[in-house]
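thread: overnight batch results

M.L. [08:02]
morning all. the overnight job finished for the chain we discussed friday. pasting input first so we're all looking at the same thing
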Amino acid sequence: MMSSIIGGFTAGDNPNTSLAAFIQMWKDTLASSDFTAGCPIVAAALGGTEAPLAPAVAAEVFDDWTNLLVEQLVRTGVDESAARSLAMTAVCAVEGAAVVAISSRSVRPLDDIGVHLAELVSFHLNGSHR
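M.L. [08:03]
and the structure it wrote out:
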């Protein structure tokens, strides 16, 4: 289900808009659940003791999300190698910020990474790193 949502976000031509939508989705989810909703994929990644195959399944899902963003970044002009690293950075930052947001009962971690991911993506989109 989440892969479909992320696929919808990344169907457009603006990776910053996609990331902002993903971050906003998390903020809305956390606010509406009083910070009790979590990511089942993160839970699966951490649940290897109880379910030994769960981390491998989680890895596949994280790869899927990363690949969706890689495709969009490449489509918008980012070098594939940089796009892969940037997409992984984004997925890790958003998922990590969601965990910190839950524990701190604040969306600030998501706001903070949103600002800096937008800067990082813009840097790559503008070719400033070349």
